[in-house]
Specification:
It is a single chain. This protein has 442 residues and is mainly α. It has one domain.
Protein backbone atom coordinates (compact mmCIF):
# COMPACT_ATOMS: atom_id res chain seq x y z
CA UNK A 1 0.00 0.00 0.00
CA UNK A 2 2.81 2.35 -0.98
CA UNK A 3 0.50 4.61 -2.99
CA UNK A 4 -0.86 7.29 -0.68
CA UNK A 5 -4.02 7.72 -2.74
CA UNK A 6 -4.77 4.02 -2.47
CA UNK A 7 -4.23 4.08 1.28
CA UNK A 8 -6.45 7.13 1.76
CA UNK A 9 -9.22 5.47 -0.28
CA UNK A 10 -8.98 2.18 1.62
CA UNK A 11 -8.75 3.91 5.00
CA UNK A 12 -11.71 6.20 4.34
CA UNK A 13 -13.73 3.24 3.07
CA UNK A 14 -12.88 1.25 6.16
CA UNK A 15 -13.63 4.15 8.52
CA UNK A 16 -16.90 4.86 6.71
CA UNK A 17 -18.03 1.24 7.09
CA UNK A 18 -16.98 1.21 10.74
CA UNK A 19 -18.73 4.50 11.53
CA UNK A 20 -21.92 3.38 9.80
CA UNK A 21 -21.85 0.09 11.71
CA UNK A 22 -21.53 1.82 15.08
CA UNK A 23 -24.15 4.42 14.18
CA UNK A 24 -26.80 1.81 13.40
CA UNK A 25 -25.70 -0.28 16.39
CA UNK A 26 -26.25 2.72 18.66
CA UNK A 27 -29.94 2.55 17.70
CA UNK A 28 -30.26 -1.14 18.58
CA UNK A 29 -29.11 -0.93 22.20
CA UNK A 30 -31.61 -1.16 25.01
CA UNK A 31 -31.32 1.01 28.15
CA UNK A 32 -28.50 -0.14 30.43
CA UNK A 33 -28.06 1.13 33.98
CA UNK A 34 -24.27 1.49 33.64
CA UNK A 35 -24.76 3.79 30.65
CA UNK A 36 -26.99 6.13 32.64
CA UNK A 37 -24.56 6.14 35.58
CA UNK A 38 -21.53 6.82 33.37
CA UNK A 39 -23.17 9.60 31.37
CA UNK A 40 -24.67 11.42 34.34
CA UNK A 41 -21.52 11.25 36.49
CA UNK A 42 -19.22 12.29 33.66
CA UNK A 43 -21.54 15.05 32.52
CA UNK A 44 -21.14 16.48 36.00
CA UNK A 45 -17.39 16.00 35.88
CA UNK A 46 -16.86 17.79 32.58
CA UNK A 47 -19.22 20.66 33.38
CA UNK A 48 -18.30 21.47 36.99
CA UNK A 49 -15.98 18.67 38.23
CA UNK A 50 -18.94 17.18 40.11
CA UNK A 51 -18.54 13.44 39.45
CA UNK A 52 -22.06 12.54 40.59
CA UNK A 53 -24.52 10.10 38.99
CA UNK A 54 -27.47 11.10 41.11
CA UNK A 55 -29.94 8.40 42.25
CA UNK A 56 -28.26 6.04 44.70
CA UNK A 57 -24.60 5.88 43.66
CA UNK A 58 -22.79 7.38 46.59
CA UNK A 59 -23.07 11.05 45.68
CA UNK A 60 -20.20 13.07 44.26
CA UNK A 61 -17.11 10.89 43.67
CA UNK A 62 -18.94 7.87 45.09
CA UNK A 63 -16.81 4.74 45.12
CA UNK A 64 -19.58 2.94 43.21
CA UNK A 65 -18.79 5.00 40.10
CA UNK A 66 -16.43 2.70 38.20
CA UNK A 67 -16.21 4.27 34.71
CA UNK A 68 -14.06 7.38 34.90
CA UNK A 69 -14.05 10.51 32.71
CA UNK A 70 -11.86 8.83 30.09
CA UNK A 71 -14.76 6.57 29.15
CA UNK A 72 -17.44 9.10 28.27
CA UNK A 73 -16.03 12.32 26.79
CA UNK A 74 -17.80 11.79 23.47
CA UNK A 75 -21.06 10.81 25.15
CA UNK A 76 -21.00 13.94 27.29
CA UNK A 77 -20.45 16.12 24.20
CA UNK A 78 -23.35 14.40 22.48
CA UNK A 79 -25.70 15.00 25.38
CA UNK A 80 -24.57 18.60 25.89
CA UNK A 81 -24.66 19.74 22.27
CA UNK A 82 -27.34 17.58 20.66
CA UNK A 83 -29.34 16.43 23.71
CA UNK A 84 -29.86 13.09 22.02
CA UNK A 85 -28.84 9.68 23.38
CA UNK A 86 -28.27 8.02 19.99
CA UNK A 87 -25.96 10.85 18.96
CA UNK A 88 -24.21 10.70 22.34
CA UNK A 89 -23.54 6.99 21.88
CA UNK A 90 -22.15 7.47 18.39
CA UNK A 91 -19.98 10.42 19.40
CA UNK A 92 -18.54 8.38 22.23
CA UNK A 93 -17.40 5.79 19.71
CA UNK A 94 -15.85 8.56 17.60
CA UNK A 95 -14.04 9.86 20.70
CA UNK A 96 -12.50 6.45 21.44
CA UNK A 97 -11.70 5.94 17.75
CA UNK A 98 -9.81 9.25 17.64
CA UNK A 99 -8.07 8.39 20.90
CA UNK A 100 -6.69 5.13 19.53
CA UNK A 101 -5.71 6.84 16.27
CA UNK A 102 -3.72 9.48 18.17
CA UNK A 103 -2.05 6.73 20.17
CA UNK A 104 -0.95 5.02 16.94
CA UNK A 105 0.76 8.27 15.89
CA UNK A 106 2.41 8.37 19.34
CA UNK A 107 3.78 4.85 18.81
CA UNK A 108 5.28 5.97 15.49
CA UNK A 109 7.62 8.29 17.44
CA UNK A 110 9.21 5.34 19.22
CA UNK A 111 8.99 2.42 16.77
CA UNK A 112 9.84 1.90 13.12
CA UNK A 113 6.34 0.88 12.04
CA UNK A 114 4.34 0.97 8.85
CA UNK A 115 1.93 3.66 10.00
CA UNK A 116 -0.62 2.84 7.30
CA UNK A 117 -0.82 -0.82 8.30
CA UNK A 118 -1.18 -0.09 12.01
CA UNK A 119 -3.84 2.57 11.42
CA UNK A 120 -5.86 0.09 9.37
CA UNK A 121 -5.44 -2.87 11.70
CA UNK A 122 -5.94 -1.00 14.98
CA UNK A 123 -9.15 0.67 13.83
CA UNK A 124 -10.62 -2.72 12.96
CA UNK A 125 -9.88 -3.98 16.47
CA UNK A 126 -13.21 -2.52 17.57
CA UNK A 127 -15.11 -5.26 15.74
CA UNK A 128 -12.99 -8.09 17.16
CA UNK A 129 -13.73 -7.39 20.82
CA UNK A 130 -16.49 -9.31 22.61
CA UNK A 131 -19.23 -6.90 23.71
CA UNK A 132 -17.71 -4.24 21.44
CA UNK A 133 -20.78 -2.02 21.80
CA UNK A 134 -19.72 -1.22 25.38
CA UNK A 135 -17.98 1.82 23.88
CA UNK A 136 -21.42 3.10 22.84
CA UNK A 137 -22.65 2.71 26.42
CA UNK A 138 -19.82 5.04 27.59
CA UNK A 139 -18.39 2.46 29.96
CA UNK A 140 -14.67 2.46 30.41
CA UNK A 141 -13.15 -0.90 29.47
CA UNK A 142 -12.30 -0.23 25.81
CA UNK A 143 -11.06 3.37 26.04
CA UNK A 144 -8.94 2.74 29.12
CA UNK A 145 -7.40 -0.45 27.71
CA UNK A 146 -6.44 1.25 24.44
CA UNK A 147 -4.60 3.90 26.45
CA UNK A 148 -3.07 1.33 28.76
CA UNK A 149 -1.76 -0.87 25.92
CA UNK A 150 0.03 1.89 24.04
CA UNK A 151 1.42 3.13 27.36
CA UNK A 152 3.12 -0.17 28.13
CA UNK A 153 4.46 -0.33 24.58
CA UNK A 154 6.32 2.99 24.98
CA UNK A 155 7.40 2.20 28.56
CA UNK A 156 11.01 1.24 27.67
CA UNK A 157 11.43 4.36 25.49
CA UNK A 158 9.63 7.03 27.54
CA UNK A 159 9.17 5.75 31.06
CA UNK A 160 7.67 8.89 32.61
CA UNK A 161 5.06 9.49 29.91
CA UNK A 162 4.11 5.80 29.93
CA UNK A 163 3.60 5.75 33.70
CA UNK A 164 1.44 8.89 33.63
CA UNK A 165 -0.70 7.46 30.82
CA UNK A 166 -1.02 4.08 32.57
CA UNK A 167 -2.03 5.78 35.79
CA UNK A 168 -4.55 7.92 33.90
CA UNK A 169 -6.10 4.83 32.31
CA UNK A 170 -6.52 3.34 35.80
CA UNK A 171 -7.71 6.26 37.92
CA UNK A 172 -9.59 8.18 35.21
CA UNK A 173 -10.67 5.06 33.33
CA UNK A 174 -11.10 1.61 34.90
CA UNK A 175 -9.47 0.75 38.19
CA UNK A 176 -9.48 -2.97 37.37
CA UNK A 177 -6.46 -2.33 35.12
CA UNK A 178 -4.40 -1.97 38.29
CA UNK A 179 -4.13 -5.79 38.33
CA UNK A 180 -2.41 -5.83 34.94
CA UNK A 181 -0.28 -2.80 35.79
CA UNK A 182 1.25 -4.20 38.98
CA UNK A 183 2.11 -7.57 37.45
CA UNK A 184 3.49 -5.91 34.30
CA UNK A 185 5.58 -3.42 36.24
CA UNK A 186 6.99 -5.89 38.78
CA UNK A 187 7.86 -8.38 36.05
CA UNK A 188 9.57 -5.71 33.96
CA UNK A 189 11.56 -4.40 36.94
CA UNK A 190 12.71 -7.86 38.05
CA UNK A 191 13.43 -9.09 34.52
CA UNK A 192 15.58 -6.06 33.67
CA UNK A 193 16.99 -5.50 37.20
CA UNK A 194 15.84 -1.88 37.31
CA UNK A 195 15.14 -1.61 41.04
CA UNK A 196 16.81 1.80 41.24
CA UNK A 197 13.90 3.34 39.31
CA UNK A 198 11.13 2.16 41.64
CA UNK A 199 10.85 5.27 43.85
CA UNK A 200 10.97 7.70 40.92
CA UNK A 201 8.50 5.54 38.98
CA UNK A 202 6.17 5.45 41.97
CA UNK A 203 6.15 9.24 42.25
CA UNK A 204 5.53 9.66 38.52
CA UNK A 205 2.74 7.08 38.53
CA UNK A 206 1.13 8.89 41.47
CA UNK A 207 0.61 12.20 39.61
CA UNK A 208 -2.83 11.30 38.13
CA UNK A 209 -3.74 9.59 41.42
CA UNK A 210 -2.94 12.74 43.43
CA UNK A 211 -5.04 14.82 41.01
CA UNK A 212 -7.96 12.43 41.47
CA UNK A 213 -7.58 12.38 45.25
CA UNK A 214 -7.45 16.19 45.31
CA UNK A 215 -10.82 16.27 43.52
CA UNK A 216 -12.13 13.74 46.00
CA UNK A 217 -10.87 15.95 48.84
CA UNK A 218 -12.84 18.87 47.41
CA UNK A 219 -16.10 17.14 46.52
CA UNK A 220 -16.52 13.80 48.34
CA UNK A 221 -19.83 13.80 50.21
CA UNK A 222 -19.47 10.81 52.54
CA UNK A 223 -16.61 11.89 54.74
CA UNK A 224 -12.99 12.95 54.47
CA UNK A 225 -10.25 11.66 52.18
CA UNK A 226 -9.30 8.85 54.56
CA UNK A 227 -12.88 7.61 54.67
CA UNK A 228 -13.01 7.70 50.86
CA UNK A 229 -9.92 5.46 50.63
CA UNK A 230 -11.41 3.00 53.15
CA UNK A 231 -14.76 2.99 51.35
CA UNK A 232 -13.02 2.60 48.00
CA UNK A 233 -11.09 -0.48 49.03
CA UNK A 234 -14.08 -1.99 50.81
CA UNK A 235 -16.20 -1.58 47.69
CA UNK A 236 -13.62 -2.84 45.19
CA UNK A 237 -12.06 -5.66 47.20
CA UNK A 238 -14.71 -6.75 49.69
CA UNK A 239 -18.22 -5.74 48.68
CA UNK A 240 -17.91 -5.80 44.91
CA UNK A 241 -19.65 -8.96 43.72
CA UNK A 242 -17.37 -9.24 40.68
CA UNK A 243 -14.11 -9.10 42.65
CA UNK A 244 -14.39 -12.63 44.02
CA UNK A 245 -12.25 -12.01 47.09
CA UNK A 246 -14.85 -12.50 49.81
CA UNK A 247 -16.26 -15.86 48.76
CA UNK A 248 -17.28 -19.16 50.29
CA UNK A 249 -15.37 -21.31 47.81
CA UNK A 250 -12.98 -23.57 49.67
CA UNK A 251 -11.70 -26.17 47.19
CA UNK A 252 -9.79 -25.92 43.93
CA UNK A 253 -12.57 -27.65 42.03
CA UNK A 254 -15.11 -25.11 43.32
CA UNK A 255 -13.04 -22.33 41.70
CA UNK A 256 -12.66 -24.32 38.47
CA UNK A 257 -16.41 -24.82 38.16
CA UNK A 258 -17.41 -21.37 39.39
CA UNK A 259 -18.51 -20.51 35.84
CA UNK A 260 -21.68 -22.55 36.37
CA UNK A 261 -23.17 -19.74 38.45
CA UNK A 262 -22.07 -16.91 36.13
CA UNK A 263 -23.18 -15.39 32.84
CA UNK A 264 -20.87 -17.85 31.03
CA UNK A 265 -23.79 -20.29 30.92
CA UNK A 266 -25.48 -17.90 28.46
CA UNK A 267 -22.49 -17.58 26.14
CA UNK A 268 -22.26 -19.19 22.72
CA UNK A 269 -19.34 -21.22 21.37
CA UNK A 270 -17.74 -18.16 19.78
CA UNK A 271 -17.60 -16.38 23.14
CA UNK A 272 -16.01 -19.44 24.77
CA UNK A 273 -13.36 -19.65 22.04
CA UNK A 274 -12.53 -15.95 22.31
CA UNK A 275 -12.44 -15.56 26.08
CA UNK A 276 -11.31 -19.01 27.26
CA UNK A 277 -9.24 -20.50 24.42
CA UNK A 278 -7.72 -17.55 22.51
CA UNK A 279 -5.56 -16.27 25.43
CA UNK A 280 -3.94 -19.69 25.69
CA UNK A 281 -3.24 -19.70 21.95
CA UNK A 282 -1.83 -16.17 22.19
CA UNK A 283 0.48 -16.95 25.12
CA UNK A 284 1.87 -20.11 23.56
CA UNK A 285 2.50 -18.41 20.22
CA UNK A 286 4.00 -15.16 21.47
CA UNK A 287 6.38 -17.02 23.80
CA UNK A 288 7.38 -19.40 20.99
CA UNK A 289 8.31 -16.50 18.68
CA UNK A 290 9.65 -14.24 21.44
CA UNK A 291 13.37 -14.66 20.80
CA UNK A 292 12.98 -13.67 17.16
CA UNK A 293 11.28 -10.38 17.90
CA UNK A 294 13.10 -7.01 17.89
CA UNK A 295 14.81 -6.36 21.24
CA UNK A 296 12.65 -3.36 22.12
CA UNK A 297 9.57 -5.59 21.86
CA UNK A 298 11.18 -8.73 23.26
CA UNK A 299 11.68 -7.22 26.72
CA UNK A 300 7.93 -6.52 26.92
CA UNK A 301 6.70 -10.02 26.07
CA UNK A 302 7.09 -11.73 29.46
CA UNK A 303 5.60 -8.78 31.42
CA UNK A 304 2.64 -8.65 29.02
CA UNK A 305 2.06 -12.41 29.08
CA UNK A 306 2.24 -12.67 32.88
CA UNK A 307 0.08 -9.60 33.53
CA UNK A 308 -2.67 -10.58 31.10
CA UNK A 309 -2.54 -14.19 32.34
CA UNK A 310 -3.08 -13.06 35.95
CA UNK A 311 -6.08 -11.04 34.81
CA UNK A 312 -7.31 -14.04 32.79
CA UNK A 313 -7.00 -16.32 35.82
CA UNK A 314 -8.77 -13.79 38.03
CA UNK A 315 -11.59 -13.63 35.49
CA UNK A 316 -12.03 -17.40 35.19
CA UNK A 317 -11.27 -18.52 38.76
CA UNK A 318 -12.09 -15.61 41.04
CA UNK A 319 -14.78 -13.41 39.53
CA UNK A 320 -18.24 -14.82 40.36
CA UNK A 321 -20.07 -12.83 37.66
CA UNK A 322 -17.61 -13.27 34.76
CA UNK A 323 -19.16 -10.40 32.85
CA UNK A 324 -17.73 -10.69 29.36
CA UNK A 325 -16.77 -7.02 29.19
CA UNK A 326 -14.17 -7.69 31.90
CA UNK A 327 -12.36 -9.94 29.42
CA UNK A 328 -11.80 -6.97 27.10
CA UNK A 329 -8.72 -5.88 29.06
CA UNK A 330 -6.60 -8.94 28.31
CA UNK A 331 -8.07 -9.53 24.84
CA UNK A 332 -7.50 -5.99 23.54
CA UNK A 333 -3.88 -6.05 24.73
CA UNK A 334 -3.26 -9.38 23.00
CA UNK A 335 -4.88 -8.42 19.70
CA UNK A 336 -3.18 -5.02 19.52
CA UNK A 337 0.22 -6.56 20.24
CA UNK A 338 -0.17 -8.88 17.26
CA UNK A 339 -1.21 -5.98 15.04
CA UNK A 340 1.80 -3.96 16.24
CA UNK A 341 4.13 -6.83 15.34
CA UNK A 342 2.57 -7.12 11.89
CA UNK A 343 3.16 -3.40 11.32
CA UNK A 344 6.85 -3.36 12.26
CA UNK A 345 9.09 -2.52 9.31
CA UNK A 346 12.12 -4.31 10.77
CA UNK A 347 10.51 -7.54 11.90
CA UNK A 348 12.89 -10.48 12.11
CA UNK A 349 9.94 -12.85 11.82
CA UNK A 350 9.40 -13.25 8.09
CA UNK A 351 8.52 -16.94 7.89
CA UNK A 352 5.13 -18.50 7.19
CA UNK A 353 4.68 -20.01 10.64
CA UNK A 354 4.16 -16.69 12.39
CA UNK A 355 1.57 -15.43 9.92
CA UNK A 356 -0.27 -18.75 9.75
CA UNK A 357 -0.37 -19.07 13.53
CA UNK A 358 -1.64 -15.59 14.27
CA UNK A 359 -4.02 -15.52 11.30
CA UNK A 360 -5.68 -18.54 12.92
CA UNK A 361 -5.63 -16.68 16.24
CA UNK A 362 -7.31 -13.59 14.75
CA UNK A 363 -9.85 -15.74 12.88
CA UNK A 364 -11.34 -16.76 16.24
CA UNK A 365 -12.63 -13.20 16.67
CA UNK A 366 -14.40 -12.96 13.29
CA UNK A 367 -18.19 -12.77 13.50
CA UNK A 368 -18.97 -15.40 10.89
CA UNK A 369 -17.97 -19.05 10.71
CA UNK A 370 -17.54 -18.62 6.94
CA UNK A 371 -15.07 -15.78 7.46
CA UNK A 372 -13.24 -17.82 10.10
CA UNK A 373 -12.93 -20.84 7.81
CA UNK A 374 -12.03 -18.63 4.85
CA UNK A 375 -9.15 -16.90 6.60
CA UNK A 376 -7.84 -20.18 7.98
CA UNK A 377 -8.09 -21.84 4.55
CA UNK A 378 -6.28 -19.05 2.71
CA UNK A 379 -3.61 -18.87 5.42
CA UNK A 380 -3.00 -22.62 5.16
CA UNK A 381 -2.74 -22.36 1.35
CA UNK A 382 -0.15 -19.57 1.72
CA UNK A 383 1.74 -21.66 4.26
CA UNK A 384 2.05 -24.67 1.93
CA UNK A 385 2.57 -22.62 -1.22
CA UNK A 386 5.88 -23.18 -3.00
CA UNK A 387 6.14 -19.49 -3.86
CA UNK A 388 8.32 -17.20 -1.78
CA UNK A 389 6.53 -15.89 1.30
CA UNK A 390 5.04 -12.42 0.77
CA UNK A 391 4.42 -10.57 4.03
CA UNK A 392 2.58 -7.72 2.30
CA UNK A 393 0.13 -10.11 0.63
CA UNK A 394 -0.54 -11.89 3.94
CA UNK A 395 -1.32 -8.60 5.71
CA UNK A 396 -3.56 -7.44 2.87
CA UNK A 397 -5.42 -10.74 3.06
CA UNK A 398 -5.97 -10.25 6.79
CA UNK A 399 -7.18 -6.68 6.19
CA UNK A 400 -9.63 -7.93 3.58
CA UNK A 401 -11.18 -10.44 5.97
CA UNK A 402 -11.35 -7.85 8.73
CA UNK A 403 -13.18 -5.53 6.33
CA UNK A 404 -15.64 -8.31 5.48
CA UNK A 405 -16.05 -8.79 9.22
CA UNK A 406 -17.24 -5.18 9.56
CA UNK A 407 -19.59 -5.55 6.59
CA UNK A 408 -21.08 -8.66 8.15
CA UNK A 409 -21.48 -6.68 11.36
CA UNK A 410 -23.59 -4.16 9.44
CA UNK A 411 -25.72 -6.97 8.02
CA UNK A 412 -26.31 -8.36 11.51
CA UNK A 413 -27.04 -4.94 13.03
CA UNK A 414 -29.63 -4.00 10.39
CA UNK A 415 -31.66 -7.11 11.28
CA UNK A 416 -32.09 -6.00 14.92
CA UNK A 417 -34.85 -3.90 16.43
CA UNK A 418 -34.14 -0.21 16.91
CA UNK A 419 -35.16 2.14 19.72
CA UNK A 420 -36.06 5.78 19.94
CA UNK A 421 -35.32 7.69 23.14
CA UNK A 422 -37.17 10.72 24.44
CA UNK A 423 -35.93 12.60 27.51
CA UNK A 424 -38.31 15.29 28.63
CA UNK A 425 -37.58 14.78 32.32
CA UNK A 426 -33.84 14.51 31.73
CA UNK A 427 -33.76 17.90 30.07
CA UNK A 428 -34.81 19.34 33.42
CA UNK A 429 -32.35 17.43 35.62
CA UNK A 430 -30.41 14.47 34.29
CA UNK A 431 -29.57 13.24 37.80
CA UNK A 432 -33.17 13.24 39.04
CA UNK A 433 -35.12 10.11 39.95
CA UNK A 434 -37.67 11.06 37.29
CA UNK A 435 -34.95 11.10 34.62
CA UNK A 436 -33.71 7.66 35.69
CA UNK A 437 -37.22 6.19 35.49
CA UNK A 438 -37.77 7.83 32.11
CA UNK A 439 -34.52 6.29 30.82
CA UNK A 440 -35.08 2.76 32.12
CA UNK A 441 -38.66 2.64 30.82
CA UNK A 442 -37.82 3.57 27.23
Amino acid sequence: MKNNKTFIFVYLLQVGILFYLFFITSKTLKPFADEYVSLTSNLGFFTNLNFDAGIDHGGSYGVELTSGPLSALGGVLGLTIFKNLITARFLNFIWVFLLQMCLVFLIKKYYDINLKVLLLLSSLTFMLIPWYFGVLYSIGEIASTYLFFYSIIIFPQNRSLALILMSTSIFFGKFILVIIFFVFYLTFIIQNKQFKFVIKDGLTFSIPLFIWLFLVFLFYEKGNLGQYIINFFNFNFTNNRSAGIDRDLTTFSSYIFSFRDSEVTNWNLADILRVLISPIIFNFGILYFKNRLPTQIKILILPIVLSTTVHYLWFWLMSPTKWIRYSQHFLIISILLIFLLLSLNKNEITDRKFYLYFSIYISIFLNSVFLLLGLVLFSVVIFFSKNNFNKKFSINLLLLFLLFNSLNGIYEATSKSTYEFSFKECMEDIRSTECWHEYENQ
